[in-house]
Amino acid sequence: MEKPLYLVRMARESALAPRPDSPIVTAQALADTRGRPLRDLRISVTDRCNFRCGYCMPREVFGHRHAFLPQPALLRFEETARLAEVFVVLGVRKIRLTGGEPLLRKNLGRLIELLAALRIPDGEPLDLTLTTNGSLLERQARMLRAAGLRRVTVSLDALDPILFQRLSDSQTEVATVLRGIDAAAEAGLTPVKVNMVVRRGLNDHQILPMAEHFRGSGHILRFIEYMDVGSTNGWQAGEVLSGREILDRLQTHYPLEALPGSYPGEVAERWRYRDGQGEIGVITSISHAFCGDCNRARLSPEGRLFLCLFAHQGYDLRALVRRGAGADEIAGAIRAIWSGRTDAYSEQRGRLATDRPRIEMSYIGG
Ligand code: SF4
Question: Ligand 1 in contact with 306 (CB < 6 A)?
Answer without folding.
Answer: no
